[in-house]
Amino acid sequence: MSPNESKSSAIGVTTGDLDRYFTFLRHVLVNAAASRPADESLDYATAVSEAMQLARATHDAGRKIIFIGNGGSAAIASHMATDYSKNGGLRAMAMNDGATLTCLSNDLGYENVFAKQIEMHANEGDLLIAISSSGRSESITKAVRMAREKGGAVITLSGFAPGNPLRALGDLNFYVASDQYGYVEIAHLAICHAILDFSCGLVPPSLS
């Protein structure tokens, strides 16, 4: 047996492993914290309701919702921009075009790839949804500050350390208490989906 075959045969999980994994995932989801600026605590359901209202009001005013994120968060941004547009009927976009990102990072530095796009394309009254697992990505925090300069509203989603910089920058801030990318990214996707699904009239089924 080759070393690779030996490694492969040792890969696996138990039912208990899966149970603990998904139990903790549920824990971080239902215990995500919501806040306003200056770390003012906000009831979770109230924050989701206000996010729903803000997204709808942005569209109804003829403005747009802009999603940004890096890596896995960029995938969430693209996914949500598509779903908010197609399923929610909300004007939404993600600033993830590959040629644009490489051009701006090459010429201006990666920390400016979203801020520059917002400077060029955002309008007063737009809504920026800024997603960062660590909450420390300079490309994201600089974009939020630019959105503020342009007169936009901001929702943030972050994780890892509770004192991360992004968490203090939004009108509404959702924070997931985990330092594991998988948990934080899944929770961010679920929160964004909950905002959309409830705004579309979803009634969650009861478990028998």
TrEMBL record:
Gene3D superfamilies: Glucose-6-phosphate isomerase like protein, domain 1. Residues 54-205 form the SIS domain. Its EC number is 5.3.1.28. This is Phosphoheptose isomerase. GO terms for biological process: carbohydrate derivative metabolic process. Keywords: Isomerase, Plasmid. It comes from the Bacteria. GO terms for molecular function: carbohydrate derivative binding; isomerase activity.
